[in-house]
Amino acid sequence: MHARIAIRFRPGVLDPEATAIQRSLHGLGFAEVEAVAKVKVIELTLAETDRPTAEARLRQMCEKLLANPVIETFEIDLLG
User: Fold this and answer.
1) How far apart are the first and last CA of the chain?
2) Fewer Cβ neighbours under 10 Å: the N or C end of the chain?
3) pLDDT tens for residues 13-57?
4) The domain that contains 63 carries what CATH number?
5) Which domain holds residue 10?
6) How many Å apart are CA 30 and CA 45, to the nearest integer?
């Protein structure tokens, strides 16, 4: 089973890289860009075939290692 996990900063957490990207885009003439958010995407292939079990295991992976729950949120997408 394939999974995609998107990890992003929680609202209110400063993201200096996204701020720098937005500033650079404005400097290049892309003034229409109102906001930038940087998202980290991790793709995994699991041997698990049971969808609920896979989701539970992925959630555990995120909570224990992949995401910092204090400053980040995560979204799990099972691709099949």
Assistant:
1) 5
2) C
3) 999 999 999 999 999 999 999 999 999 999 999 999 999 999 999
4) 3.30.1280.10
5) 2-78
6) 37
